[in-house]
Specification:
Largest sheet: none
Number of strands: 0
Order of helices and strands: HH
Mean pLDDT: 72
Radius of gyration: 30 Å
């Protein structure tokens, strides 16, 4: 089966484009310009919302709810 010249030309252009893209981006490790546009932010502990203070708050809440304290 023989391809028509226009299809052959289109395939050649596609292969050239792929080769060019690979050559451009092979050298650069991070070629995507702005990671904040496609990466979700790294979760971090907020001030006053973690650790001992949080546990103490939860304990007080539990005590008030379950042991009749106002």
């Amino acid at each position: 089966m023989r391809l028509s010249p226009s299809i052959t030309l289109a395939l050649n252009i596609t292969y050239l484009d792929l080769a060019l893209i690979q050559r451009l981006f092979a050298g650069s490790r991070d070629f995507l310009p702005a990671p904040e546009l496609y990466c979700s932010p790294v979760p971090r502990e907020r001030h006053g919302k973690s650790g001992v203070a949080r546990a103490k708050r939860k304990a007080r809440k539990y005590k008030r709810r379950n042991h009749g304290r106002p």
